[in-house]
Design goal:
- There is one protein chain.
- This protein has two helices and no strands.
- It is mainly α.
- 77% of the residues lie in helices and 0% in strands.
- It has helices at residues 12-28, 33-68.
Length: 69
């Protein structure tokens, strides 16, 4: 497997695209148990990164909405 960038350095779109790719790979069931576990762990990290970025965006929207009031 090719070494990818750290999830913390990815923007939302890149993390989501890679996560979708991992899900597709896992659904194909063409990997050994060890490879599947590595993909799963990477997917978990990417999912956490996406959630972090969404939370940050939501906070920015909340701040903007409260300052508009």
């Amino acid at each position: 497997m090719v070494k990818s960038k750290e999830p913390a350095s990815l923007d939302f779109e890149a993390a989501l695209t890679e996560l979708e790719s991992i899900v597709s790979k896992l659904e194909s069931s063409q990997f050994s148990l060890q490879e599947s576990l590595q993909l799963y762990k990477r997917g978990e990290m990417l999912s956490q990164r996406c959630n972090q970025l969404l939370d940050e965006a939501e906070s920015q929207i909340d701040e903007q909405s409260s300052s508009d009031d």
